[in-house]
Amino acid sequence: MLISICMCTYQRDHVVDTLKSIAKLRLPEHVKLEVIVVDNDEQGYAKELVTDQAELMDIPVFYRQESAKNIALARNCSINNTNGEWVAFIDDDEVADPHWLAQLLSTAQTYQADAVFGRVKSTYPNNTPEWIIESGVFERPPVSNGQEVTSGATNSTLVSQAAIKKYQLKFDSNYGLTGGEDADFFYRLYQHGGKLVCSNEAFVSEEVASNRLNIHYLLKRAIRIGETYTRYRIQKTALANKLAYFTDVLLKLITLLFIVLIKLPFGQSKYAKPLLQLVDKYGKIKALFTTKTVKLYS
């Protein structure tokens, strides 16, 4: 069995560490790997980094370039170059646990799933503000093995090549500068009848970048996540559905506003998470009325 590991990169030296962690993966004897790294920098920033590391690995590593600055097109370039029965996704700022891929595959086979989402464990540099660690704003919610979901991300993921081809799935370039192309991709897989599950045992680690350790970035990201949710789930639905959705989200926003106000005197570590949840709801409502969206990759 061949598994193709896809990774997109943009001006990040950490891609070398990610490749090193892939080289240390522990897999069943019948499983072979190939790695496709797509550089989304028009100057080819990662070419030498990837090719030099590839020479030190027993796994075939293929460097490709997508010069158009669009994360969705870069992801399409990666899957277009795969030959595996399964396609795995990992980010260029992550380090894979040695059992990461074996656990994803085991979960996929156990639950007969079309896609499996592993965990991402956040780690922090030494200069991280204490309120960020205490508030848990970068922590992902816990999952259980086999837990079914309707969408997911490409940061710790295994998906069936057969499902990709059967439903002719591609990442939508309209999300290329905003992000959220992965959530849209997997939601469409779910709508086609695909089975999407979680794995509690498969995980990668990610050190949060220093330029993200601030409330400005967190607020921007929260708005974008809310906007994306509305875009791929609600914008094309009937007016009645939109009205019900608007009412539900507005009530939640108002509730969260009161929670934030109550927690405000107790410091940022207490009110940060409900504040970001509130801003997420704002993004969801905003996307109902305007096509202007937050661009995380501009």
Structure write-up:
- 43% of the residues lie in helices and 18% in strands.
- With 298 residues, it is an alpha/beta fold.
- It has 2 domains: 2-211, Alpha-Beta Complex (Spore Coat Polysaccharide Biosynthesis Protein SpsA, Chain A); 215-289.
- Strands 3-2-1-4-7-6-8-5 form an 8-stranded mixed beta sheet.
- Strand 1 (2-9), helix 1 (15-23) and strand 2 form a beta-alpha-beta unit.
- The radius of gyration is 19 Å and the shape is globular.
- The chain starts with a strand and ends in a 9-residue tail after the last helix.
Order of helices and strands, N to C? EHEHEHEEHEHEHHEHHH
- Supply the helix-strand structural class: alpha/beta
Largest sheet: 8 strands, mixed
List segments where confidence is low: pLDDT < 50 over at least 5 consecutive residues.
none
Any idea what the CATH superfamily of the largest domain is called?
Spore Coat Polysaccharide Biosynthesis Protein SpsA, Chain A
* Biggest sheet strand line-up: 3-2-1-4-7-6-8-5
The N- to C-terminal Cα distance equals 38 Å
* Total beta-strand segments: 8
- How many domains, in number, for the residues? 2
CATH architectural type of the largest domain: Alpha-Beta Complex
With helices defined by DSSP (H or I, 4 residues minimum), what is the helix count? 10
